[in-house]
Amino acid sequence: MNELEMNIPTYEDVLSAHERIQPHVHLTPVLTSSYFNQLSGAKLFFKCENLQKAGVFKARGASNAVFGLSNEQARKGVATHSSGNHGLCLSYAAGRRGIPATVVMPRTAPEAKKDAVRGYGAEVVECEPSTSSREAVFGEVVAKSGADFIHPYNDPRVIAGQGTCARELAAQVQGLDAVVAPIGGGGMISGTCLTLSTIAPDVKIYAAEPKNADDAYRSLKAGHIIADDAPDTIADGLKVPLKNLTWHFVSNFVTDILLCSEREIIDAMYLIWQRMKIVVEPSSATTLAILLKNRELFAGQRVGVILTGGNVDLKKLPWMQA
Amino acid sequence: MNELEMNIPTYEDVLSAHERIQPHVHLTPVLTSSYFNQLSGAKLFFKCENLQKAGVFKARGASNAVFGLSNEQARKGVATHSSGNHGLCLSYAAGRRGIPATVVMPRTAPEAKKDAVRGYGAEVVECEPSTSSREAVFGEVVAKSGADFIHPYNDPRVIAGQGTCARELAAQVQGLDAVVAPIGGGGMISGTCLTLSTIAPDVKIYAAEPKNADDAYRSLKAGHIIADDAPDTIADGLKVPLKNLTWHFVSNFVTDILLCSEREIIDAMYLIWQRMKIVVEPSSATTLAILLKNRELFAGQRVGVILTGGNVDLKKLPWMQA
């Protein structure tokens, strides 16, 4: 086994993760909508990870990583660089365990995001908004504290944690034909592949991606990872590239990646809020967007739809802007 | 028995209603939030009727009324006057049964609300925005069609339908000490009283009401119905007065009515969206508002919180306005 193979999590890891994180995460509900069934021509089952702790599925992976640490490592704490949901969730999980967490964020990140991380008890260390500054500052943090680096998605503990979502979904909804989830770095999709390829290998797995950040789509077609420099999409959780662990799952188990435009994402997001009465972030809405534009592909099927998160600025909604 | 007594629904009616409407309504989830537990000092269980069909608990009462009609009456259809949630829910239920529904609405009502009613297949008949015009137009509609008038809340079929919500909640959450629900005309509170006074008589029932529309509060203190002319509150579902059937339940079974300001309603609404990732209308938020300002009253208790609905104009949110 090479190093990659050694790091690939197994379904046993998902089961351990599930037992480990159960006290710290919600068993999120599955909602249905006759309106969306009619609109899509399929039977849709929305797995509401926007209702998860910290408002996003990443509470699963982060909790698995944090609660799996030895006591010795836990004392030294955890660290990551993320101005988004992973930083928030790592702070949440570290706060639950009562251990130190440091999140390196660009000084230009919104104050509300820094406050949310601090609200869970983590420390925010600011860097300049560049990759070199981020890496330098992050290196210092880890060197000084000995904190364990928890990558947002290219970490077997994180992927195994995300895999618990599809395990719940498969128990909540019988006879699924397909599952649709957004793809960015590939953490949620990888966890979904890991679980379903073991317990329900006939279920097709579709990933939804913004046209404006279609690196995973092009990677799948090319047969190797393509990483874009600076994709621009409203689905800000989906801008990051695949890495070797997530590429393993995507390349082996994803049926197809389907693309949607920025307009389609915003329209789908608005429709979800309006008809389902839930707050979802743009990334989540890519799922409904691709379902509505690929009606014939899903017609008559039972489709699980993973709504990944709900962390948005309620004062800056895309349909309020000129 | 006088006429009022003959009309008071019983818990048997709730059981029949539940069986009758089950295929047509959602068993809505109960959500929890450690953030709100901490903030309130209580253990809160949010019954999410905003995730109900048509976005509001009134789908229960309307479905019970519509599906309880004889075939003969059903052919003549149903009618109501309501520019709000009841009109929408009656249209929904009539559409499910495939019978005619007419909703009399002021011509000044928002086009979006008229479209939503039409979207479920009902007919909108416009009147002038005055009580006299509404009554005249409504009288004509009923005289011509023979449609059954379904009152938004002062109807035993409607109250029995709303009572199914508390029945679900009591099955979903063990050992509740109290339940909090908003009060307007008193339909939801009456259904809650009907159910809990039978199956869990020790559970205290608190009603939440806007200070700006405190007619139910003043009625309870005075010992008789006081109806205001034109209360002005953002919680537009709560502007209507109690009537004899709902007064029966409120006066006999409600522990207390607690008031909140417009600012408190908007703040609580924003907090619910932000922390729970669900869309609730202002009326729903009165519950959290009174919980947060009466901390000592609920400290340490297990409290059911009925979030009644989520029908808001997403393009006109109160925290976006100057």
Describe this structure in words.
Chain A is α/β, with parallel strands linked by helices and about 325 residues long. The first copy, chain A, has two domains: about 5-55 and about 155-320, Rossmann fold; about 60-150, Rossmann fold, CATH 3.40.50. Chain A is built from 15 helices and ten strands. A six-stranded mixed beta sheet of chain A has the order 1-2-10-7-8-9, with helices on both faces. A four-stranded parallel beta sheet of chain A has the order 5-4-3-6, with helices on both faces. In chain A, strand 7 (about 180), helix 10 (about 185-200) and strand 8 (about 205-210) form a beta-alpha-beta unit. In chain A, helix 2 (about 10-20) packs across helix 4 (about 60-65) and helix 6 (about 85-95) runs parallel beside helix 7 (about 110-120). Chain A is globular, with a radius of gyration of 18 Å. The mean pLDDT of chain A is about 95. Chains A and B meet through helix 13 of A and helix 13 of B.
Broad shape of chain A: globular
Radius of gyration of chain A: 18 Å
**What does the main sheet of chain A amount to?**
6 strands, mixed
- Please work out how many helical segments of chain A DSSP would assign: 15
CATH architecture of the largest domain in chain A: 3-Layer(aba) Sandwich
Assembly status: homodimer
The largest beta-sheet of chain A arranges its strands as: 1-2-10-7-8-9
> How many structural units, i.e. domains of chain A?
2
Residues in helix, % of chain A: 40-55%
What proportion strand of chain A?
A: 5-15%
Count of strand segments of chain A: 10
At the first level of CATH, the class of the largest domain in chain A is Alpha Beta
**Biggest interface between chains:** A-B, 24 and 23 residues
Low-confidence stretches of chain A at least 5 residues in length (pLDDT < 50)?
Answer: none
Helix-strand makeup class of chain A: alpha/beta
Order of helices and strands of chain A: HHEHEHHEHEHEHEHEHEHHEHHHE
- How is the CATH topology of the largest domain in chain A named? Rossmann fold
Overall pLDDT metric of chain A: 95
